[in-house]
Amino acid sequence: MTVVVRTIARVLLPLSLVFGGYVVMHGHLTPGGGFQGGAVAASGLAMVVVAFGADRLAKKKGLLSVLESLGGVAFAALGFLGLGLTFFANVLAKTGGLFGNPVPYGPNPGDLNTAGTLPLMNWAVGFKVLAGLGAVVLLFALFGGEHDR
Amino acid sequence: MNRWLAIAAFCLAGGFLIFGATTLRPFGEPKRTEMDDYFNRFSQPEVAANNAVTAIVFDYRGYDTLGEATVLFTAVTGVALVLRRLKK
Amino acid sequence: MIGNLPFVVCMILVALGLWTLVVKRNLVKLVIGVGLIESGVNLFLVALGYVQGGIPPIYTYAPADAPMVLPTPQALTLTSIVIGVATTALMLAFAVVIYRHKGTLDARKIRELRG
């Protein structure tokens, strides 16, 4: 692509990644969550693929695959964390530790340090969706090129 | 001939769809079920999350989300499997 | 009052997707038709849970004493959207492979079994 597109992609990539991270991190307080934030960040990855060409990113395919598997494993492990009570029980909520603050009932300004395992699961699913959609876009862009397997 | 048959079938199906939509409950007045009231009232005391939708997706119906993640993983695996170069 | 107009609009979207599936023969256009049906169904699910004058089911800076819309259809629509993305990606991958093997995207020319 041309210089204009490359420059704009360089400027917009950190912005879209940060916005995706914000949507994931505030998933239990504002509209959003792991899937939406991951999709936002993956759109930034797709922009990089379009602007710089897929061949320069061909080596990153293994990294994306590992990241997706790690996200899935982390999500399942967080589900197994509550196995003493039930599967997917929220063992971290309202304990006072990590993400353990109690929430006042009714409308409130919101506290980031609440909701137990939900933010951790949001991060796991966010990384999973980011890596999965990025890998799909990268595979489509690589098909037929010189780095085709 | 075949084409006209298909278009007739489409008209029948589309007519039923739109007729069915006009005979539903009125828009904006859904039946208040116990489940939805429970989620709205207890997502704060039980899960300590302000966002009831996230509380449902990751806590009350976490098993559902596990299946969803499996579907996404399977789709990525399928795309990677299909889009490889076959030996001539 | 707008009555049942939102439901009718969703069903018109589903019907447009069905029309695409019936009439078009290009594989990519068929994928677009399936995507239209998915969008219509997702909109229908979200519209089913709307309460008159309701706010989103989020307590952060929520106005007091306002009714909240039903949260369960929204959560299930989230699941539905992700599965829609997965199926769309798989269908497009199959379309790409079929084009490489057969050299055409016409759904009538790529049939192998003729009866």
Structural class of chain B: mainly alpha
Shape of chain B: flat
Q: How many helices of chain A does DSSP assign? A: 4
How many domains, in number, for the residues of chain B?
1
- Estimate nothing, just give the exact number of structural domains of chain A: 1
User: Which range does the strand content of chain B fall in?
Assistant: under 5%
What is the number of strand segments of chain B? 0
The overall pLDDT average of chain A reads 83
Cα-atom Rg of chain A, whole angstroms? 18 Å
End-to-end CA span of chain B? 41 Å
Q: How would a crystallographer describe the biggest sheet of chain A?
A: none
Order of helices and strands of chain A: HHHH
Percent of residues in helices of chain B: over 70%
Distance between the termini of chain A: 24 Å
> How many strands, which pairing sense, and closed or not: the largest β-sheet of chain B?
none
Dominant shape of chain A: elongated
Summary of the model, kept short:
The complex is a heterotrimer of chains A (149), B (88) and C (115). Chain A is mainly α.
Would you kindly provide a written description of the structure presented here, covering whatever features stand out?
The complex is a heterotrimer of chains A (149), B (88) and C (115). Chain A is mainly alpha-helical. Chain A has one domain. Chain A has helices spanning 3-25, 34-52, 61-80, 118-142. The relative contact order of chain A is 0.19. By secondary structure, chain B is mostly helical. Chain B has one domain (2-82). Helices cover 74% and strands 0% of the residues of chain B. With 115 residues, chain C is mostly helical. Chain C has one domain (5-102): Helix Hairpins, CATH 1.10.287. Helices cover 63% and strands 0% of the residues of chain C. Chains in contact: A-B, A-C, B-C. The B-C interface holds B 6-7, 9-10, 13-14, 17-18, 20-22, 24, 26-30, 33, 35-36, 39-40, 43-44, 50-53, 56-57, 61, 64-65, 68, 71-72, 74-76, 78-79, 82-83 and C 2-8, 10-12, 14-15, 18-19, 22-23, 47-53, 57-60, 68, 70-72, 74-76, 78-79, 82-83, 85-87, 89-90, 93-94, 96-97.
